[in-house]
Amino acid sequence: xxxxxxxxxxxxxxxxxxxxxxxxxxxxxxxxxxxxxxxxxxxxxxxxxxxxxxxxxxxxxxxxxxxxxxxxxxxxxxxxxxxxxxxxxxxxxxxxxxxxxxxxxxxxxxxxxxxxxxxxxxxxxxxxxxxxxxxxxxxxxxxxxxxxxxxxxxxxxxxxxxxxxxxxxxxxxxxxxxxxxxxxxxxxxxxxxxxxxxxxxxxxxxxxx
Length: 209
What we know:
single chain, mainly beta, 6-stranded mixed β-sheet, 47% strand
């Protein structure tokens, strides 16, 4: 997915049309017409470049994380009084205690909680853009909806297996491998949810230290 501003009629998400085959000339001396052949056993499930598949969007993610950290460190050291010329040098008493005693205490306590939930429901029609050698399909497509205060769009790109396509030419979004699903918008409503440049400046990672 590109980070540039999304636009309608993006050639990346344009539908892929099947290539036109050279028409086979009619054969007047046979009961079998190659250019009008229709198999009685083939179903209508998409399997060629340009075929349309309906993707049922059924995405839901829930993440929750909690962390508590507590560190305590106490240090107490006593230095023996030095002896010079056979005499012990004793430090004079002070209000702070003896000068040959060292002690330190450090304590850190922190906690963090994160709770996030996302859901995306609906459907979108995509086209097969490529048939891979192993029989898998590369699909891509987009849907734009023009509302009163702007536009909303859904884009999807990924890989699917032929066996996962239902008889009604549909597949669940959770069965798409390497899926790239984008939901966004343009207009007044989308702009109101964007953070300003000044706020982005102050939440820069450099200010976190």
